[in-house]
Amino acid sequence: MPYKPLVTAFFSSIAIIGSMGATASSVRLDIQSAWPLTLPASGQSAQHLADRIKTTSEDIKVKLYSAGKLVPPLEIFDAVQQGTLDAGYTSPLYVAGRFPALQLFGGVPFGPSALEYLDWIYNGGGLAIWRDIYAKQGVVTVPCGLMDAEAGGWYNFEINSTDDLKGKKIRFAGLAGEVMKKAGASVVLLGGGDIYPNLERGVIDGTEFSMPAIDAAMGFEKVAKYYYLPGWHQPAAINELIINKRKWDSMSAAQQGLIEDTCRETQLWTISSTTIANADAINKFKAAGTQIKAFPPAVLAAFKKGTDEVMNEEANKDADFKRTLDSLNSYREKVSLWTEYKGN
């Protein structure tokens, strides 16, 4: 065959194959966030993720919805599981009632630092367990938003000893909520939007919610006198992108890899996006007259003792919780010497 027709045929075949590949592999991904897209870290991280995928991929067409636009935030998992929603940007804590082990992925009282948390997830076996738990439900998780430490909470009374907690109605959730019960508090479960009015009316005496930047968006400084820092119940947390497994399996390895890599980038973006905002929020609280307090050592010791008891109780009740806790504790033991010598 003459040279020129051969070259023409070669490039024509490449164009056809490229066109076929682009058409065959294009995928649409509808994602709903569990939080308003303007909320620091959580909702804003969902927006960041969607924007990055749109920028870096031509064949993943993302449509992002804010909280409640398609389904209620606490029903995102069910919608993704059933396939009525492709994906959700949410927290594993929202389904911890059904899968107790997931509490260990959403934030651990007296748990590891943010960096060690990620290291356990990616290099210490955490992600394999997390995905195994979800695989039975037809859902794939991609860790996708590393959150900085939460504050110790807002209270309308001082906490000088655990006696001050007895009989007080406090909004807490998860493992930390069980610890607060052991300390004598009456734990109340409330959605985010119900906390402010209940604090304002005195229905509850205190609440934990999140880090200062997110607490500032909620306006809690207007209805609570005392803000406790640092927190103890969630030194770090990880939000997730959950995807219907059939949708995930329909993607190419390149598309899956791009989502994984974009979520890793979103991890870094999330934790670095709130550092200045957290400092600004504390200044705002002080200007509003909020008293910034620290938990006394004896109170923290009681919380730690209660945490150990709760962990053992949960491990005895649930096999997945036990294997997850064993994995996390094994990892922390392996790195403990470096953690000790490197300091803060």
Automatic annotation (TrEMBL):
Substrate binds at residues 150, 171, 208, 234. Gene3D superfamilies: Bacterial extracellular solute-binding protein, family 7, Periplasmic binding protein-like II. It comes from the Bacteria. Na(+) binds at residue 209. One of its GO terms (biological process) is transmembrane transport. One of its GO terms (molecular function) is metal ion binding. GO terms for cellular component: tripartite ATP-independent periplasmic transporter complex. Keywords: Metal-binding, Signal. Residues 1-24 form the signal peptide. It holds the Pfam family DctP. This is TRAP-type mannitol/chloroaromatic compound transport system, substrate-binding protein. It comes from Marinomonas polaris DSM 16579.
